[in-house]
Amino acid sequence: MIENAQYAPTRGRYKVYLIDEVHMLSKNAFNALLKTLEEPPPHAMFLLATTDPQKLPVTVLSRCLKFNLKRLLPEQIQGQMQHILGAEGIACEADALAVLARAADGSLRDGLSLLDQAIAYGGGAVRAADVRAMLGSLDSAEVLGLAQALAQGDGKALLAEAQRIVAFAPDFGKVLDDLAALWHRVQLRQLVPGYAAVDEADGVTLDALAARLSAEEVQLDYQLALSGRRDLPLAPDEAMGFEMALLRMLAFRPQRED
């Protein structure tokens, strides 16, 4: 590449080289690249992309303009997936794309990689059930069942819901993340006047939870979901850690005023 960069382009004014995950280059490769960056040909431009800029040598960073790209919103990633699938004529479910967009964690590249896997897993179609099975995630109704049992203070129902989830062998950290996200949505309804999210199929259930629980209880459950997520690696096994996180939410409740 460095040798080829010395020659003028046969078409257009510039040659543009994009090096993805540039921090993975070896020390020798960086040294060779540095010589070109110090005195780049006037017709060559280098785009260095990385998710870990701290690993780049200072000598390279000092010769570059740095742009920090923002994470994409799940809605933006989902829209791009929908556009691609429509152009390719591939059948999909909106719920499946929403799950994939959240799993992408702001990265369109990761999202498209997951989309490719989902197409292969689903035999040429993208279905919500297949995507959740592939990612080890659950239907939102399962997480709602946990929240409703907690709101009712029903330990028997809570354990039954938890054991039903354990039988799926999901990613327990992801389940607790989903539960924390649910508490966030409930809290918005409690503390933001007139809040109404668009396209929420479970909006009525969330409204009921917001009315039944105090704001303090929702805050506590949110924090316990986060701490339970963090403590999963310390548990004897993840299923036990997951159940204990739920039981902790049931055991600790803010004191209500008489």
From TrEMBL:
<dbReference type="Pfam" id="PF22608">
    <property type="entry name" value="DNAX_ATPase_lid"/>
</dbReference>
<keyword id="KW-0862">Zinc</keyword>
<protein>
    <submittedName>
        <fullName>DNA polymerase III subunits gamma and tau</fullName>
    </submittedName>
</protein>
<dbReference type="GO" id="GO:0005524">
    <property type="term" value="F:ATP binding"/>
</dbReference>
<keyword id="KW-0547">Nucleotide-binding</keyword>
<dbReference type="InterPro" id="IPR022754">
    <property type="entry name" value="DNA_pol_III_gamma-3"/>
</dbReference>
<dbReference type="InterPro" id="IPR050238">
    <property type="entry name" value="DNA_Rep/Repair_Clamp_Loader"/>
</dbReference>
<dbReference type="Pfam" id="PF12169">
    <property type="entry name" value="DNA_pol3_gamma3"/>
</dbReference>
<dbReference type="Pfam" id="PF13177">
    <property type="entry name" value="DNA_pol3_delta2"/>
</dbReference>
<keyword id="KW-0548">Nucleotidyltransferase</keyword>
<dbReference type="GO" id="GO:0006261">
    <property type="term" value="P:DNA-templated DNA replication"/>
</dbReference>
<feature type="domain" description="DNA polymerase III subunit gamma/tau helical lid">
    <location>
        <begin position="76"/>
        <end position="124"/>
    </location>
</feature>
<dbReference type="InterPro" id="IPR008921">
    <property type="entry name" value="DNA_pol3_clamp-load_cplx_C"/>
</dbReference>
<dbReference type="GO" id="GO:0046872">
    <property type="term" value="F:metal ion binding"/>
</dbReference>
<dbReference type="GO" id="GO:0003887">
    <property type="term" value="F:DNA-directed DNA polymerase activity"/>
</dbReference>
<dbReference type="InterPro" id="IPR027417">
    <property type="entry name" value="P-loop_NTPase"/>
</dbReference>
<dbReference type="InterPro" id="IPR045085">
    <property type="entry name" value="HLD_clamp_pol_III_gamma_tau"/>
</dbReference>
<dbReference type="GO" id="GO:0003677">
    <property type="term" value="F:DNA binding"/>
</dbReference>
<comment type="similarity">
    <text>Belongs to the DnaX/STICHEL family.</text>
</comment>
<keyword id="KW-0479">Metal-binding</keyword>
<keyword id="KW-0808">Transferase</keyword>
<keyword id="KW-0067">ATP-binding</keyword>
<feature type="domain" description="DNA polymerase III gamma subunit">
    <location>
        <begin position="126"/>
        <end position="251"/>
    </location>
</feature>
